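Sample 3 of the quickstart, ligand GFB:
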Amino acid sequence: MGSEVKEAPIRVLVTGGSGLVGKAIEHVVQREGGKLEGEEWIFLSSKDANLVDAGQTRAVFEKYRPTHVIHLAAKVGGLYLHMRQNLQFLRDNIKINDNVLQTAHEFGVTKVVSCLSSCIFPDETTYPINETMIHDGPPHDSNFGYSHAKRMIDVQNRAYYRQYGRCYTAVIPTNVFGPYDNFNIENGHVLSALINKTHKAKKEGTPLNVCGSGTPRRQFIYSLDLGRLIIWALRKYKEIDPIIMSVGEEDEVSIKEAVEMIVAALDFKGTIFDTTLSDGQLKKTANNAKLRRYLPDFPFTPLKEAIRMTCDWFVENYDIART
Ligand code: NAP
Ligand code: GFB
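Result:
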């Protein structure tokens, strides 16, 4: 008789599927055997639905009926875009996150993994930062809009669990970079903006203008490594509390050291530091001990190698790169 229980098919909806992290997850799913039998993966861009709009969010969930969601969609940018648009970052991200989480809940999505960021931690803090410290004090002033919106994901996850038992959780990456990044010089993050600037300076025979003093320190994670880790979180990470996804503290580098890796990869000479521009947060050193307890042997791609691969990708794909 019908004693066989048929498992529902797994349909994973990735919001922000066309961005830096979304493309990395797509690569792992399609080219590294990340997709398991019986799974369907859907990668959304803002063209499929503007998630700021509740109606469009509902329509896209109605269309795909996901069982799992990786929520990456966000208004994202480097330090200087944040400084110009804190209000827009706050409003867009609050709306996107509330629409996605509530619609996921209404459609019975069993697991959501959202993306926070290590820049949302308190500015005045002790180091290294760990997962318990998110709400301990105000974030850095340069990106307070984005940070408060992102912090609310953590609050909402706990509330969905408390009220409905939902397993909605979040990962906290440090600075991400890789293929398909936003390489725009004005709005991009440091590595992508500097890769584009170096490429341009080399073509035009001008100096490379690095913003700020070069002394701030960052932990950079290669997008492909993060993609692999987020898929692990979707399958194996059962906590509601978030988890930092980062290389170790010993792998933190100064902006100046990162610049040296870029100019070496692109074979360029002639760097100037414009110290009239803001340095932003001097450091936000994060501790990856929790991740290491789960995955002691996860192999992070060495920074130098990952920067070289990103530079190669940018030069080879200049025509399609977001510049
Ligand atoms: P990204 O390259 O800028 O991609 C952003 C993605 O979000 C794109 O797919 C974009 O779609 C989509 N999106 C933006 N606004 C939308 C809207 N109103 N409706 C629907 N989709 C929208 O960003 P990313 O670096 O991959 O970031 C992914 C996640 O990681 C974000 O949650 C971000 O906060 C987090 N994160 C990033 C970093 C980093 O250094 N990049 C660090 C920590 C955390 P279109 O392509 O159609 O515009
Ligand atoms: O990646 P980034 O823009 O953001 O890096 P944050 C900023 C640091 O790089 C500052 C230096 O110390 C800048 O002075 N820098 C040097 C440059 N040259 C450049 C350049 O050409 N462009 C840029 N953008 N920076 C972000 C947050 O903080 O962290 C976001 O604003 C985001 O919220 C991200 O979540 C992870 O690391 O300072």
